Amino acid sequence: MSKIIKYVFYDIIKNKIVLAYTLFLLLLSIGLFNLGGSPDKAILSLLNLVLLTVPLISIVFATTHFYNSYEFMELLVAQPINRKKIFMSEYLGVACSLSGAFILGVGVPILVFGASLTGLYLLLTGVFITFIFVALAFLASVITRDKAKGIGIALMLWFYFALIYDGIILFILYAFADYPLEKATLVMTALNPVDLGRIIVLLNLDVSALMGYTGALYKSILGSLWGIGLAFGLMLLWILIPILSSRRIFSRRDL
Amino acid sequence: MKDLNKYTTILCTMVLLLIADKAFASTLKVCSTCNYTSVKEAVKAAKSGETVLIENGVYQEYGIEIDKPLTILGRNRPVIDGNYKGQIFTVKASNVTIEGLTIKNIATSYRQDDAAIRVVEQSNVRILNNIILNTFFGIYLQNSDNCVVKGNVVKGQDVTGKNESGLGNAIHLWYCDNAVISNNKVQGHRDGIYLEFVKDSEVKNNLSEKNLRYGLHFMFSDRNVYTHNIFRRNGAGVAVMYTRDIRMEYNTFDNNWGAAAYGLLLKDISNSMIRNNTFRRNTTGIYMESSSRLDIQHNEFEQNGWAIRLLSSCTDDVFRYNNFVGNSFDVSTNGNSTLNLFENNYWDKYSGYDLDKDQVGDVPYRPVSLYSMLVERVPSSVMFMRSFMVDMLDNIEKVLPSFIPEDLVDEKPLMKKTNYDNDRKLAQVIR
């Protein structure tokens, strides 16, 4: 298995796109840290980047990669290797290389310019989000054989999680404003990994605003180490569910 | 002739100094080996205008009643320990001075408000440089005019998890006019400084922190001046209510966090001036309700959740030359009609331009965002802060305002932060 992971990993690194991705992140983060007055402000801007760009690139790249390495996978399937192993090594190869790029591109500037707990959370969130969206990309690609359709589904998933979901929830909150919605909001945010990541970082940044009203509840639940652990646990679940279900589909499907 | 004058003056001074000891009444010393071994005895024996000098030591006493004008003076910080038995000093005479003592240990009572020093219906009482530890109420002035409370340290207990009714106020004034409260450090009580029906008074250079409820709390206290105070980490910040003609300047409101915490809560305040204050890291910088004709200028709002929450019951308030930096929300309001003026403030979120280089932005700035209106209506939506969707909605609303109040706008936002100390030129213009 590690051999295949290594192969996939090196194959992707040889690919110019990941290199460009790393450089893009690196330049952007260094620029943001030098531009903004305080490291907090830069981390805030980076948060927006992590929550929008990272999912998009992860999901698109992973989907195209999956379809492009179809022939390689078919070749491997012909060998006496467990299908699940092939699939998981593909996944880990892609996810690791992308999160490696992220850690290099964002982690190093954070370490240099604004090392803090918030920075660490941001980094962790980014890595988790990469893993989650690669998993979602693989799910989208095993659902259909058609490359165009697969990329379409992947993009829709990104669109849903990064944009539409918040809109829908805001609409629901607004429509049911007369009811106590604190707990419901908490549950609804847990249903979107992007929101989860955002809140983890936010609880460390905009603390004063969040201390009011609902914020206090969130702070009491998610503010403690236990709560942060819970949030990351939920994100782990967000990795496991799509990847395990897509592995199931992959191992049963007629390739 | 000139020389003679000089000598006469010196001679007179010498003579005066020599007889001063006799002219001023004698001093009664209190110490373990003196004539008086307890403060109570000495106070009883002293005649009007005399001084009771308490030497270093620990005195287990309570219920000391001062019924004539005396000076109670502590040398080398004597300690008066009430042993939780009752009130320690009760001042029932005017012109009393209590200075340099350490007073401690008064039990919490739900029946009476026991204080370390209570002044009852007198005037010209001076309470100076005392340290008051672990008491129910610290200094309690009732119906007493022209009093001075200066340089005292009033330290209570750790208030986390305590109940409001189980705590007293550090400095409590009720129906007192012309009071001066300065250079005190108060902490660990219900309210740090509590004023009710206190007129024409001055509160300055105090530090009030870690109190359960308010750092400063006043009601029905007109024409007071509050300057150079620091209010920090209080449960609910500072609350001022039902008052007019006050002046608040150079105060710092710091780190007042919590679901119902405000840097400064204004309720029914009118004709007042709030200038040169700093509001930093509060959940809400200023919360204003039914307040009118306030002049809010030159304040610094930094990293607050809400810099200003302006309810629509406020009218004719003027916000000028304030700096808004790093606040999650600059201004939020609950209604559509606002009758207040924002002008020449610096907003760090302002993205306009200044073509004619007059330091004033050419496009008006709307400090109320759509999202802040939404949060006002649906508090739970605060969790979607910094979400891309929210930023998008805000930007759309900025281009085509339809929900946010039409007239809550800064027509002349400043391009640069006002630096009050260095911007001489601007300061002159403002003056």
From TrEMBL, chain A:
It comes from the Bacteria. Keywords: Membrane, Transmembrane, Transmembrane helix. GO terms for molecular function: ABC-type transporter activity. The chain crosses the membrane at residues 18-36, 42-70, 91-114, 120-143, 155-176, 225-245. One of its GO terms (cellular component) is plasma membrane. This is ABC transporter permease subunit. It comes from Pontibacter burrus.
From TrEMBL, chain B:
It comes from the Bacteria. Keywords: Repeat, Signal, Ubl conjugation pathway. This is Nitrous oxide reductase family maturation protein NosD. Pathway: Protein modification; protein ubiquitination. Gene3D superfamilies: Single-stranded right-handed beta-helix, Pectin lyase-like. PANTHER family: F-BOX ONLY PROTEIN, F-BOX ONLY PROTEIN 10. Residues 1-25 form the signal peptide. It comes from Pontibacter burrus. The keyword Signal applies. The gene is nosD. InterPro entries: Beta_helix, Carb-bd_sugar_hydrolysis-dom, NosD_copper_fam, NosD_dom, Para_beta_helix_rpt-2, PbH1, Pectin_lyas_fold, Pectin_lyase_fold/virulence. The keyword Chaperone does not apply. It holds the Pfam family Beta_helix. Residues 54-196 form the Carbohydrate-binding/sugar hydrolysis domain.
